[in-house]
Design goal:
By secondary structure, the chain is mainly alpha-helical. It is built from 20 helices and ten strands. It has three domains: 158 residues, no CATH class; 221 residues, hpI Integrase, Chain A; 90 residues, no CATH class. 46% of the residues lie in helices and 8% in strands. The strands form four sheets. A three-stranded antiparallel sheet has the order 5-6-7.
Length: 528
């Protein structure tokens, strides 16, 4: 009970140091198992191989190395291996910046001095997450009553303001190769993946990579979540009356703090085509299931089985059930490999390469951005993305690329000539002749929304046109019912593209879709 209480102490708390022997434990208890600490390399991984190599800190004074190990023993008792490894990497960079340790001066005083020098030289305008981690390590060590960590240093550290990692910059501003895909790019990608499915058999080495890429696109999951997926997580429900199949997947959480792997799951409904692909993948992967004596049950095997099981065992993966999985690094590379195959085939067929940069992170942000654009509540999106709180998903609801995604198709359709004019490809006279935009309500001084009507708002709109227009009291709609019917169909098709034919009915009754539908109904009645 002592350690949890100390973790909540303030920076200026008075903590008498405790005399501890040099760290000589043969093993320590992590949150999931016993860790062998006899050698320089600690195998701390749970579902994947993660190590702490203390030989990198061999230049430290012996007493300091000992107390650092005591702090990491505390970290391992409650934090995930990747988080602990992150702290270790920050410390390696810090201690490598120290030239030498004086033998005739207090190690604690030198540590404080070197720490402040390092912080002063490493400050940046954007991301100071590593410095914040360094402060947390020092203050936590002080709260554990380790003698080399000083209260006065903690008080000074508490007054420093570090700039966190600005997440979502590639969502708020378009960054080539990193930002979420535009609507036209996502449409091309899905079409290319669909065509790839038609000529790749389940026994082709590329097939599991293609299935994994589809899961990234449709569900927006992380590579580690794919690594943890087991065959028991996949469910097929058959309607006996008509033989219709529905598919579900229990996706394991990997971001819940202080939780071991495969303790929490999020049930996800799969579109029929993706369920069929996963079903084929499992069938092809375990076609020799009952002839392999090393496999006890089909339900407890990874959906994506690797070929390097012996290599992962050599790395001492903690849980044997994950030893057959390829590892998260393998899944991180799959989308780019699939894209390379697609582009190569297109070039052979005389078609231009798509040239899309595919990564799990980019596909995940594309999923989140489009889900927010479709009206998904922030709490629901938080659950879908496996986050602990709402602050990580609010960026997808801010004005930025999410705005550009929605009007991208409108720009491409209605402003092609305007862009050609600004590029110098056509003259102003040609531009005027080509664009005879007809609107029916309001004076010419009002701002035109090409094709659908006029807006009475003088300032730039902070909402999300054109979707937000239909529920806005400043919008004067055109009386051309065919235009609004086209917009309504586009909205409904976009929902189907992003979430499949099995999209929840509530997606079709969100505010902008409902308002557009009601307008279409009124105009249809008026034209009868």
């Amino acid at each position: 009970m002592t350690q949890p209480r100390r973790s909540r102490l303030k920076f200026n708390a008075v903590i008498p140091p405790l005399e501890r022997p040099l760290f000589n434990k043969t093993s320590i208890k992590s949150r999931s198992r016993q860790i062998d600490t006899l050698g320089d390399v600690w195998q701390i991984g749970e579902s994947d191989a993660v190590t702490l190599n203390w030989s990198f800190l061999s230049r430290l004074p012996e007493e300091l190395t000992s107390q650092v190990k005591y702090t990491f023993e505390y970290f391992l008792s409650g934090l995930a291996p990747d988080t602990v490894s992150g702290y270790f990497d920050v410390l390696k960079k810090f201690f490598n910046s120290v030239d030498e340790w004086e033998s005739d001066e207090s190690v604690g005083d030198q540590l404080s001095e070197y720490l402040f020098d390092y912080i002063a030289t490493q400050r940046t305008q954007n991301d100071e997450t590593s410095l914040s981690s360094l402060r947390h390590w020092y203050t936590q060590s002080h709260q554990l009553a380790l003698s080399l960590f000083q209260r006065k240093t903690c008080q000074v550290l508490s007054k420093l303001k570090f700039k966190g990692n600005m997440k979502g910059q590639d969502v708020l501003a378009y960054i080539e190769g990193r930002s979420p895909f535009r609507s036209d790019e996502l449409s091309k990608l899905r079409k290319a993946l669909t065509e790839c499915c038609s000529h790749i058999t389940p026994y082709d080495p590329l097939f599991p990579k293609l299935v994994a890429t589809w899961i990234f696109v449709v569900l927006g999951v992380r590579p580690r979540q794919l690594m943890l997926l087991m065959t028991c997580d996949f469910a097929v429900n058959i309607d006996k009356s008509n033989g219709h199949k529905t598919y579900m997947l229990n996706v394991p959480s990997v971001k819940k703090r202080y939780t071991l792997p495969r303790q929490r799951f999020k049930q996800r409904v799969l579109p029929a085509f993706l369920g069929e692909l996963i079903e084929k993948q499992i069938s092809a992967q375990y076609r020799d299931l009952f002839s392999d004596r090393s496999i006890l049950t089909q339900d407890d095997q990874p959906i994506f089985r690797g070929t390097n099981a012996s290599e992962r065992k050599a790395k001492k993966v903690t849980f044997e059930r994950f030893a057959a999985s390829p590892g998260k690094d393998y899944f991180a590379k799959l989308p780019s490999e699939v894209m390379a195959f697609i582009d190569e085939k297109r070039v052979k067929d005389g078609l231009p390469a798509l040239g899309l940069k595919l990564t799990p992170r980019r596909l995940r942000k594309t999923f989140a951005t489009h889900a927010a654009a479709m009206g998904t509540p922030s709490y629901a999106l938080m659950e879908l993305l496996d986050h602990d709180d709402l602050q990580h998903v609010m960026v997808y609801y801010q004005l930025g690329v999410s705005f550009a995604l929605k009007i991208d198709a409108v720009y491409q359709k209605h402003f092609t000539d305007h862009l050609a004019y600004f590029d110098g490809k056509i003259t102003l006279k040609e531009l005027v002749e080509r664009n005879n935009v007809r609107t029916v309500f309001g004076p010419d001084s009002l701002r035109k929304l090409v094709g659908i009507g006029l807006c009475a708002k003088g300032a730039p709109c902070r909402l999300q046109p054109p979707y937000s227009c239909y529920g806005c009291n400043k919008f004067e709609a055109s009386n051309d019912v065919s235009v609004h019917q086209e917009v309504l169909v586009a909205m409904q098709n976009e929902i189907r593209e992003k979430f499949g034919d099995d999209a929840p009915p509530g997606f079709y009754t969100v505010t902008h879709v409902k308002a557009c539908s009601e307008l279409v109904e009124r105009l249809e009645v008026g034209h009868e």
